[in-house]
Structures are given as C-alpha cells and as structure tokens.
C-alpha cells in the first residue's frame, strides 16, 4: 500500500496533459470530504482517468453530478453507503483513500487513531474482495521555484517521525544549522500549523488533495510503462529497524519495483531517524495490535 508523500517529484501540469495509455478506472473512497472533493476534481481533469468512481457514506451523488458537468473524458459515478461500496470498487485499477475524520485544534493524530483505523481497515478489506489487483493509495497525515524542488520525506507521518532529507534536495541547497533545524521543525508541524490557522474549521485538506492527486498520477504513469518514476511512500520495509518506513520507491507496472532506501544521510538526519524510531515502532505496534484485535 502507498501512503501520502509530502512532495512528489512528478509535475501535476505535465500529468494533466499526458495522453499515454489512459483507460484507468480510479476510485476515491471518501469522495465527499474536505480532501476527497478537491482530489476528485483534480482526477476528473486528467486524461489518465477514464472512469472516476466516487464513494462516501453521504452526499456522493451530488458530488458526482457536479463533477460530471466538467467537459473531460472521465465518466463519473457516485456510490453511497456500505451497500454500494462493492459496486464502486469493481474493476478499479487504482483506489485512493482520503477517508477519515479530520483533526480539530488541540487534537493529536493519535486521538483519531481508532476511528480512522477502523474506516481504513474496512475499506481495505472491501478492496481485497472487489479489486484485489488494484493499487491502493492511502492518504494519511506528512527561496526556489517550489515546482522544481524535490525533497525526499522519509519516516512516518506524525511530528518528529516526519524526516525531510534536505541534504538530498534537488536542486541542492544548504542552510546554516539554526535555519535547518527551524525549517525541519516547521515541516514536521505543517499539518498542525494548518489546523491552528483554520481555527476549528478543518485540517489540511486542499494541499493534501493536491499531493494525493500528484501521487496518483505518478502511479498511473508508472503503470502505463513510464520509467524512472520515484515517489516516497510509507510501506513495509527492511531499510531500518522499523517494519514500516517511508523511503523513495521506484514505481512500475506492478507497484513497487524497488525500495531505494535512505541514501547517504548527514549526521543531523541520522539523529532525526534515531529520534523517530521509538515513536514509529510504538505506532506500528499499535496498528498491528489493532488488526489482531479485529480478528
């Protein structure tokens, strides 16, 4: 499974105009939410998508009807409620899951774990039953032209487990230690910054939708045979002591072709990884225990 990457390298404008093999059926589960709606809009705009299947527990027919008036080739269907989940997933090649309850001021990501883990587990089970070969992308909370900057973000998706490898940034950049520490801290707390700025009206949704769409386009490009597609994603891994860890991945027709690992780290980044390990291991154990208790 793939999770959100903070800064995918693929250019969204290029992907929107790509005209290679473009007959993919893509499902968005949680399509009526704050991330799901703008994400669905971005996917509807892409010639890589021929059928956009939208699912949520409420309001999906309205979202689908609204998007269907956009004059792009993707057919849009809306599916609402558990009884229609199977139909929404049937025949899908890619499933994007932004579903979940958003954070509010004062809440940590951990506060939402049981609720959102249950939602994702239910949807993942439905994918296994109805489109077992599909690629599944799960969106979870991680001075130059930003469109030309790529920074690998490794580790996890919460606080200090979010590790931007600024030493591996392209194009290459350098910062004094105090600026590097401040920049790293701000990246780690970016989601909380948006939650506070929205003052109870929601969490980071538009930027998350954009990142989710960019990742989906990268995956579709790779599935269509484009070579050299690299994205960071949180997957089962043997690159560190943690069973799951986000690292750059070479994507291909069958999903992950190769885990590219962490590469060469600076001493500052090695400490970030070490500091994140304990929290990541605890989060992974919590997830594994959750699944065991569901059986």
From TrEMBL:
The keyword Oxidoreductase applies. Belongs to the LDH/MDH superfamily. MDH type 1 family. The keyword Transcription does not apply. GO terms for molecular function: L-malate dehydrogenase (NAD+) activity. Keywords: NAD, Oxidoreductase, Tricarboxylic acid cycle. NAD(+) binds at residues 30-36, 56, 116, 139-141, 208. InterPro entries: L-lactate/malate_DH (IPR001557), Lactate/malate_DH_C (IPR022383), Lactate_DH/Glyco_Ohase_4_C (IPR015955), Malate_DH_type1 (IPR010097), NAD(P)-bd_dom_sf (IPR036291). It is an enzyme of class 1 (oxidoreductase). This is Malate dehydrogenase, mitochondrial. The gene is mdh2. It catalyses: (S)-malate + NAD(+) = oxaloacetate + NADH + H(+). It comes from Chanos chanos (Milkfish).
